Amino acid sequence: MACRIKRVIEHSIARWLAACGLLAVLSIAPMQATRAAALPPPPLNAPLLAFTAGTGTAIYLYDVSADHLRTLDFGMATPTVWDFSPDGCRLLFTADAAGDGIPSLYSARLDGGDLQAMGRYDGAWGAWAADWSARGDIAFTLIDLRIERDGALSRRHFIAVMDGANPADAVTLYSTGGDEFAPRWSPDGAWLAYIAYEERVPGADLLSTAVPTLTPVPDSPPREMFSLLREADLWLVSVDGATTHRLTDFPVGSVRDPRWSPDGELISFIYSPAPNNDLFYMIAGRPDALTNPLSTQWNVTLDHTWRPDGAGLVASARNFQGVMQSRLWSIPLLGNADESATLFLSDNAIIYADYPRFSADGGYLAFRSEYALVIYQPESGEWWRLSAPPGHAPPVWSPDAFAGESACG
């Protein structure tokens, strides 16, 4: 017989099809494809990593323990993953559904089902930098869009909060200045840190402010003729929005990237007296706390995160301690990091690193190196690059409460 099979276990299906000729391939392959498409994807386990590529419409979920990559595609441009729900069973992300360049806020199950538009607000609006708290509240930067009388489109940015369990919930604005960004919940969800910009009249140089006077100096130009500087400080607001505190009040320069310590006691941030002149700082997350510099020599900090044990920071910085490339550094909480900081990863194969993020259990560190996503195990020292498209946004880990996709309702 032309197509003789001795034993199935002795010959693979692929070899049998090759022996039977093209006709067998054409008749069987469609049936196999139909069956494969009908099979559900394997459930994802913890810890789970979510990220997006620099281009395209896909969101990727990486199951570290199974080395399995799942792709979700909602057909919307520029998706950016920001967080998981407190139980880890839903994704929180923004995407440009209308194609107008304005991102909207969405959540969906890990299999891509039950896609929901999140939040309700009067007028045209968008969303950015969303954070889902342990209590279930979602905070984000609301982009308020308005057409002015002269026909120009204006944008104002507010800190907005909504109930994550109610997609149609009307958002509440927790700030009023119209120039606020980067909301970050404390680990217990009781407080929200964010940055707010203000304008000032520059002094003789970038490191000074014009001396205020009760009355205008004779023959001085009107205020609108000055080129005002826009600079940010760190603020704190309670979960109910009733209590607001200004945490920093630097006379010059800007604060960015607030990060809560694992125990919720401290907030680290980057202070820049002038653009691209960055310093590591921290402050207690309570009113009247004093700022504490962790470094004194300017560097260029790309991003930073807390170590899982709260003993220090891991930062991506360049022009630091004489190293020009962006590398990952261990920043201690005591002493001067300009002298005491050490390379977190000394492997010269890992260069141009940024966006460091620890898994909830501290067993893995994900970061970007030369735009590729890298997974590192601090305990073993092993690391590997994912064979996924390069990205431009930070990776996001599932929360500690995530017990695997099988446990999701």
Q: What is the straight-line distance between the termini? A: 53 Å
Broad structural category? mainly beta
Low-confidence stretches: 1-36
Integer average pLDDT: 88
Secondary structure tally: strands: 28
Rg over C-alpha atoms, rounded to the nearest angstrom: 26 Å
Number of helices: 3
Q: If you consult CATH, what is the topology of the largest domain?
A: Neuraminidase
Tell me the major beta sheet: 4 strands, antiparallel
Biggest sheet, strands in spatial order? 3-2-1-28
For this structure, what is the CATH class of the largest domain? Mainly Beta
> Beta-sheet strand percentage?
35-45%
Q: CATH superfamily assignment of the largest domain?
A: TolB, C-terminal domain
Gross morphology is globular
CATH architecture of the largest domain: 6 Propeller
Task: Count the domains.
Answer: 2
- As a percent range, the share of helical residues equals under 10%
Overview of the structural elements:
Strand 10 and strand 11 (172-173) form a beta hairpin. The protein is 7% helix and 42% strand. The strands form 7 sheets. A 4-stranded antiparallel beta sheet has the order 3-2-1-28, with no helix packed on it. The chain has a 4-stranded antiparallel beta sheet with strand order 4-5-6-7, with no helix packed on it. A 4-stranded antiparallel beta sheet has the order 8-9-10-11, with no helix packed on it. It is mainly β and 409 residues long. It folds into 2 domains: 1-39, no CATH class; 46-203 and 221-314 and 327-344 and 390-407, TolB, C-terminal domain (Neuraminidase), CATH 2.120.10. The protein has 3 helices and 28 strands. The chain is globular and about 65 Å long.
